[in-house]
From TrEMBL, chains A, B, C, D:
Transmembrane segments: none annotated. The keyword Disulfide bond does not apply. Keywords: Isomerase, Metal-binding, Zinc. Belongs to the aldolase class II family. AraD/FucA subfamily. It comes from the Bacteria. It catalyses: L-ribulose 5-phosphate = D-xylulose 5-phosphate. InterPro entries: Aldolase_class_II_sugar_metab, Aldolase_II/adducin_N, Aldolase_II/adducin_N_sf. One of its GO terms (molecular function) is L-ribulose-phosphate 4-epimerase activity. It holds the Pfam family Aldolase_II. This is L-ribulose-5-phosphate 4-epimerase.
Length: 231, 231, 231, 231
């Protein structure tokens, strides 16, 4: 079942490695089929070099395995919670990519300092809080999803306009309309995390991108009047 | 038309990727044929892996497409404005390369700290100001070109002696007598941006290169009495 | 003798190079056969490009060569002391990998700042003290092993829960149940050394990972109730 | 003439590129035949991808071309001055490698902070002063060699024990008993330049390697009682 989606998901996982965002088995990408309400995710702890489409696991929105011989990624409940809450999301990626993880470990939002940021993220990428002991006991991975939702709701953020988050002390999650764009958003987040760190180091008084430039760049690529690329 | 120039332009765009200056479609290079007053530029948002010479777009100095099935780069008006104002320029490159973009985001000129800089740039690489709301409304990309010209005129700079600029909050543009040297200047700017950042971090009191060494290095490679390379 | 182990050891040494942890001959990995009490180690100063299983040297726990035409790694006595003292260790790796060496040169423990750290190291990675003149005179390499043991004993650390150490002014050693995991622990230590340095640079007040998150991540991968990966 | 040496020199130049120390034509390596008093050096500004042994230029100690169709490296007089003054040197390499150049631009000696440094350089790598206007006028490249000699003499340094130097605002030169070790010393200098910069950034109070460890590491690889590698 969902053979095409499995192929997309395995390609997305391999792309994470190819882009240098994932070492060993430290990452996972998934995609959902909204019609059936099932999503396809990478198995847990399996070598990227031998991973193939048929190793992908099919899971329902409660996190139950529907098809597959291998255990799904240990982060599966996080994916399930996000897919259930945000019907506009089609794919999710999780990595421990170096520079985004550095911001997560610093416990700071990634501010919008340049147009490379604004082309993809319409404002700062938020850093979500540490989980409490109670949340960890209740179920670490599902509660991680809930803390992401809490962060976006408290700040009133549109989940597709800001398609990523940092988890304090952990690492980033990104998403998109499909798994390919979720992976691309991981690549962008990694690059802007590096750029913005050193921009601040170089000039401690460097300002965030003025709102007018943020608007211009985000909106020339996204929204009704976008004119970037081929139509 | 302009088949040879199209080949040069596609090679220059691929070189930007090969040199690690461009991720995805975040860059563009162009070259002008001064006889016809037409220039050749990369199409917008097209994958580098499949891009070929026949995908290149031919544009006039008003930015109108003269030949080509694809939309030209969204930055085409910036190229057009620069080609029109500076007849000595034969090629232009634009990237979001990491270290040059960091200086752009910091809003600082790249000072001439070493001979690697002096071999190519005869003095600091200027950082141009943010555009105003009025300029954005009038036409973001063309006005970007005008702000570059404003920066060079205010400082009395020779556009071939300092063949590049940073745009505050955005990224670099470089140019040269042809598109190959424009790309090479992007590579140099990226490298010196990295070196100069860390030289200042290592020694906050590090001085700029003395004028006499700047002169020596620039002039042994450029100008009448140059003696570097093969003649 | 120990042909399989030699193959494992040569592969582990090559993996150190492939992962970018070793330049030239600056590293070594070994594995022990507990039944015979003999270990297999890389020869000293031999080129990785031509190194093969039959070049590996078999050594006893006193550091005497039992089989092999080449001199064993000059660090062999360090390996011998560790294998003798810690029967739970099956493999050891030593590199001068850039970021871990930077912490060693700074003379600082690598604090547990994130879950990438917690997935492998159950707490800070300690930095052992410089050797004294007396220790150097007595035998630099064997005494290095003893200083590692001293460090772990003074702090009451479990050698498999914290499978690595920094030597002040020198570089890291890592270990594991076998040589493959020793190498993997070197890769993790390198990555967290980089992340943790820049997390602290980005936010000088960044806190260490709360104990509850450290516990959760370490224990979901290790110990009785681990649920990461395939069983 | 000197066909074998030409082959060594072309390989050394290619190794500089392969090791990531040289972009475009920004580097040069040479080797001397002490019997004839002639040395072989890379031509100036020639592409590394097409460079072959027969392109190498043979030069005498006054810097006069003895054989070769191409202009020798513009830095040839620096090599000549060093070969003439130091009969123990067999090969020289010059690069603008990123991290060593950063120290040169910062105008600082690279302190001995770790054993990676001590394995190759027996003490700090000195940074030589800027040339004066008079020196530049007299002959920039030959005077560069003289300033290197001045630096070593003022500090009483053994040129083979400290086989490299930084030129303030410029970049490193390294040397060795042959051109292969000159290149290797460039690689080591680049690596320790990176490590030492970040060790100091991580811990501003990080101390230099104690003399006893510096002695131990340098002397276990060099000198009469060396025991590293295969004999």
């Amino acid at each position: 079942m969902l053979e095409e989606l499995k192929e997309e998901v395995v390609q997305a996982n391999l792309e994470l490695t190819k882009q240098g965002l994932v070492k060993y088995t430290w990452g996972n990408a998934s995609a959902i089929d909204r019609e059936s309400g099932l999503f396809v995710i990478k198995p847990s702890g399996v070598d990227y070099e031998t991973m193939k489409a048929s190793d992908m696991v099919v899971v329902d929105l409660k996190g139950n395995v529907v098809e597959g011989d291998l255990n799904p990624s240990s982060d599966t409940p996080t994916h399930a919670v996000l897919y259930e809450h945000y019907p506009e999301i089609g794919g999710i990626a999780h990595t421990h990519s170096t520079w985004a993880t550095i911001w997560a470990q610093a416990g700071l939002d990634v501010p919008a300092m340049g147009t490379t940021h604004a082309d993809t993220f319409y404002g700062p990428v938020p850093c979500a809080r540490f989980l409490t002991q109670e949340e960890i006991d209740r179920g670490y991975e599902a509660e991680t999803g809930k803390v992401i939702i809490e962060t976006f709701e408290e700040r009133g953020l549109d989940v597709l306009a800001v398609p990523g988050v940092l988890l304090h002390g952990h690492a980033p999650f990104t998403w998109g309309k499909d798994v390919k764009s979720a992976v691309m958003n991981s690549v962008v987040l990694e690059e802007i995390s590096k750029m913005n760190l050193f921009a601040r180091e170089l000039n401690h008084f460097a300002q965030e991108l003025p709102q007018r430039i943020l608007d211009k760049h985000y909106l020339r690529k996204h929204g009704e009047n976008a004119y970037y690329g081929q139509k």
